[in-house]
Amino acid sequence: MEWIDKVELMCSLVLGAVLIVLLLHFTYSVTLDIRQTEWWERCRDALHEWKADTRWFFKRVTGQVGDDE
Q1: pTM, to two decimals
Q2: Angstrom distance (rounded) from CA 21 to CA 23
Q3: Digit-coded pLDDT (tens) for 18-66
């Protein structure tokens, strides 16, 4: 193998490695965003449920519960 072939092979290997690293980084970033979104949605749902339970409790304690519930 001539030196130019070795340089071409090394450049191809380095470029391939860089592309693989970028692909893995992009995949990890998207996965992380999805996990954070799911976590945020669970927290938001739990907060809404807690607020609804708290409203019901205080209405019940203060006697404001009507027939509409």
Answers
A1: 0.46
A2: 5
A3: 999 999 888 888 777 777 888 788 888 898 898 888 888 888 888 876 5
* Cβ within 8 Å of residue 56, ≥6 positions away: 65, 69
- What pLDDT is stored for residue 66 in this prediction? 59
Contact status, residue 59 vs residue 65, Cβ threshold 8 Å:
yes
| b/e code 19-47 from CB counts within 10 Å (16+ = b) | eeeeeeeeeeeeeeeeeeeeeeeeeeeee
Measured in degrees and rounded to the nearest 5, phi and psi for residue 47 equal: -65, -45
CA terminus-to-terminus distance, the chain = 84
Distance (Å) of CA 34 to CA 25, 37, 40, 54: 14, 5, 10, 30
